[in-house]
Amino acid sequence: MRFAGKTALVTGASAGIGRALAVEFAREGADVAVAARRLDLLEKLVRDIEALGRRALAVRCDVTREDEVRAAVASTVSRFGALDVAVANAGFGVVGPVEQLTTDDFRRQFETNVFGVIPPVKAAMAELEKSRGRLALVGSVSGHLTVPATAAYSMSKYAVRSLAEALFHELRPKGVSVTLISPGFVESEFRRVDNQGVHHPGAGDPYPRWLVMPVETAARKIVRALADRRREIILTGHGKLAVFCQRHFPWAMSLFFRWTGYRARQEPT
Question: Could you tell me the CA-to-CA distances from 89 to 43, 223, 262 in Å, in that order?
Fold first, then answer.
């Protein structure tokens, strides 16, 4: 097992990638602390982890509140004795053309996607330095390229990518590895959340099933990347292709958007 005897803390763990990562860490031998706002979902997750034979801790936590995040890290260390892996996972996606978005839409996007990542990172750093552990930040393929009508979301994920790059250099001398996780289309509740952050469980996924990676597959790949201390993992074949084209043939991406009229998904209602 890749993480036998280790302790992992995953924020945003009540659903989607965060939940799947918590389960996968447990399968790989880790004890897991899970943090999010929805305590009822966390308690069910704890039972699932314990059924795998690992210890688990649920901590209700708003990742934008520094005091709550510090308390989550302290509770994790108090319960398990150390912190070896921390995954800063929080976010939703504001969609729409810039002319239709308000300044508050941009603020709301950054409050969760950027200022919901910084507190867990800062709270975990000292403990990770002690364990020479691993830090992961969940970004997006949208942190490498911007699709029309995703300015707010892409801006926030470019910021997360910049944060990960700075942390990579700052923490490497201290023995802490930093991995940026950049998903493409992965199965989650993400695309059922509107611009105000409200979840619409009845909304359908706008993308065909064949284009969306199962969240369990994504979690396995991410945990493997963390075990190998990789600097970045880009998930899904189309995500890798899009990043490659944007990096080497940006003109081709511009032509694609112009010729196809491709735009971001519609806001769920």
Answer: 18, 14, 28
Q: Are 89 and 18 in contact (CB under 8 A)?
A: yes
Which residue type is seen at 143? Answer: G
Q: How many CB atoms lie within 10 A of CB 130?
A: 15
Q: How many CB atoms lie within 10 A of CB 106?
A: 17
Question: What's residue 90's pLDDT?
Answer: 83
The residue assigned the tokens 């800063």 is 88
Backbone angles phi, psi at 180, to 5 degrees: -95, 125
Let me know if domain 7-260 sits in CATH 3.40.710.10. Answer: no
pLDDT digits (tens, 9 = 90+) for 153-183: 999 999 999 999 999 999 999 999 999 999 9
Of the CA atoms within 13 Å of residue 71, those in its CB half-sphere come to 13
What DSSP state is assigned to residue 266? P
Q: Does an H or E element contain 180, and which?
A: strand 177-182
Tell me the domain boundaries of the chain: 7-260
Distance in angstroms (rounded) separating the CA atoms of residues 208 and 192: 15
Catalytic residue among 153, 158, 207, 262: 153
**Is 207 a known active-site residue?**
no
Whether the CB-CB separation of 198 and 209 falls below 8 Å is answered with no
